[in-house]
Amino acid sequence: MNDAVVKTGPPRYANSGWGPSFSVLDIGLADRVAVLEPESAFWAIVDGSALPEALSGRVLEAFVDRQESFRQEMDRLRFGLKPSAVYFNPTERCNFNCTYCYLPEEMRRSGKTMSAQEVAAALERLAAYFDRTLEPGVKPQLIFHGSEPMLAREAVFAAIDRFRDRFLFGIQTNATLLDEEAVDFLTSHGVGIGISLDAHEAPVADAVRKNWQGHGAFTQVVRVMERLASYPAFNVITTVTRENVPLLPELVDFYHDAGVRVVMFNPVRCTRSGGMALKPEDSVLAEAFCAALDRTYALFEATGRPLVVANFANVLAGILGPTGRRLMCDISPCGGGRCFMAVSAQGDLFPCSEFIGFPEYRGGNLFRDDLDGVLKSAPFRAVTTRVVENIDPCRRCAVRHFCGAPCPAEVQAVNGGLESPSPYCRFYEEQIRYAFRVIAQGREMAYLWDGWDEETEETYRCA
């Protein structure tokens, strides 16, 4: 029998079989590239001409010295978090019939609306669960979501008033029912407010966001936006479709001029045929999205006032410090069923709001079932165990832990199962390249929200 060869001491070379395996990512700069160790999400920006020396010198040494702590940090982020947020749909109904909505039309037209007593009972059960599972003093988040939660206004406002000491509240609304009294109530209670607007021109904004009679509400939504622009807990969500994708750079100017601080440019979800029909090509989306980010930087340079594109800022923060993420869509497993859950107006529990239109992903009912059991149910486990390591070609991708192959509900709708890459794969790759380019240029603070790093701790810096 041959004697075994034992390797001692730290590996001297990368990609040799003994040492770590690095990938090199072109980030669109002539003189610099990103070097990544995909499993741990370790990265470094290096001079392209010094790449061989970096892979056998400082970058290799930096990784080898701390590789175990890097991997442990990533494992905690991916598998060690507890649910701490709920997307709560107090009604299935909506006063709008948006072309790309991810919820079934029948539900939005004639579905159930919770009574004030039902909302209160649901929140009591959720609060009791979080009291038991979260650290003392940590408040869970509860976002009233939709359909249109303002159709259950009295029940929602009563719950906010009653449970204000037990939850951090938010509301996502189409803004058509936000009168002055409602705005005063929400702002006085410190509720986060997100509204939806898809363009700075009425014909485009109203083309796919319209009521059951076919009319949009551009003027009303802009009036609410201007009223709330200075409110710290306010944001605007723009759903990016084939109709408005060329307008993203102009939208940046529009929002910045209006004093808006935070926006989201969310690619339309393909969970239903309406969204799929409006999906822009990845290359077109990437070009417009990056041009919009370029414009935010130009405005920051000119005025000193940032406009944070939150979904990009989340990717950037996730690269700079994984625990700096606020959103959990761009990592696998995603946050669905793991960091948050969704409650329908029937009390049914789903891993995420995007799954409410998929009855097979119902994990139980808040009023009838034990929450611990729901979180371990087969529908929830299908989402919480969906990892990029089981998806081709994601398992070989250098940026797999900065992307996460989202969104599982969208992937389910497009491919008939969860183990497939995102239909926006190319776009996400270009967005991550842009983020590394920002870092290489030292421009990251122009894109991030204030205090983004308050919940992070610097563990290593390689000069």
Give structural notes.
With 463 residues, this protein is α/β, with parallel strands linked by helices. Helices cover 38% and strands 13% of the residues. The chain has 17 helices and 13 strands. The protein has helices spanning 51-56, 58-79, 105-110, 116-133, 153-162, 180-188, 202-208, 218-228, 248-257, 273-277, 282-303, 310-320, 371-375, 378-384, 400-403, 408-415, 425-440, and strands spanning 23-26, 32-37, 42-47, 85-88, 141-144, 168-173, 192-196, 234-240, 262-267, 308-309, 340-343, 348-350, 364-365. It has a ten-stranded mixed sheet. Strand 5 (141-144), helix 5 (153-162) and strand 6 (168-173) form a beta-alpha-beta unit. Helix 4 (116-133) runs parallel beside helix 5 (153-162). The longest helix has 22 residues, at 58-79. The chain is globular and about 65 Å long. It starts with 22 loop residues before the first strand and ends in a 23-residue tail after the last helix. The model is unreliable at 1-9 (pLDDT under 50).
